[in-house]
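Following up on my earlier thread - several people asked me to post the actual chain instead of describing it. Fair enough. Here it is, all 260 residues.
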Amino acid sequence: MLRPQDVHEPMESPSSTIKVGLSNGRADHGITVWNGFVQYRYPLLPSLSVDLKASVASLSNGESTVTGASDLIASASIDIGPHAGGVIGVKFPLGNGGRSSNDLPLPMDLQPSLGTIDIITGVTLGLGRWLVTAAVQQPLTRNENRFRAEEYPATSSFERIASTAGFHRRGDIMMRISYPFEVHQDIRITPSLLPVYHIADDSFEGPSGESVPIPGSQGMTLNVNVLSTFTVDDGRTMDLSIGVPLVTRSARSDGLTRAY
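Reply from S.P.:
Thanks for posting it. Predicted structure:
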C-alpha cells in the first residue's frame, strides 16, 4: 500500500492480482535484513479494491539471527476522482516484538515485527505528471519487548542500543513526492522523495515502571527512492526499487532505519 502509482489511470487490473517480493537492507549496528512478502488484491468495484499482504523477515548481526513472520496488512484502495486515490488499512502483527536469545530479550533492531496494531491511511493526488502522497501511520497498541541494554555485557554490541522494555512507539506522518516517466513503452522509472516525520519521542518503561523518553527519536527522516517497473506481458510486471536515507533521526529505537 502507498506505493507510487499513476492515479491518472484506472485501477491496475479488472481481475485479481498476486504480487511477491524480496528485499535486502542494511540496518543500524551492522544488522543485515531480508524481507519477503506476498500480496493479494481483489477488485470489488471498478474503483474499489481490497488487499491482503503478509510478510516475513530475517535479521542477523553475526551474534544473533532471528527469522519469523512480520505483519499482516489488510487495506482498501479507492479512486476518489480522476486524479486522486485513497487508501486505509490496518497492520496486524504476526509477532509480539518480544523475541529473545540465550534467555536475554533482543532489541527492536532484531525483531521481525514491531508487534503493534497500526492504522494507516493516506491519499494520493496527481498534479500534472507529479504524484503527491500524504499518509499517517498510528500505532494503537504496545508490543511485548523487554530489552534493557544494561543486562548485556560491555563487550556486546547490544549494550550500546537504546532500551525498549515496554516500548511505546509514536506515530508517523509521511509524504511521497514522485515523478513517473516512460523510458520505453515497457519501462517506467519513478524517482521519489520520502520525508517521514516521527511526531513525538518514543519511550520505554524504566526499572520502577516509569515512562522514560528516548531523546532524539522525534523528528524527520528524509529518504530518496527510485522505482523501475518493467512490463513483462499483458498480465505480469516486475519492479526493481532502491532507496537510501539522506537525513535520519539521532535515535531510531524502533529498529526501522536502513542504510539502503
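The CA atoms of residues 145 and 202 lie 13 Å apart. That should answer part of your original question.
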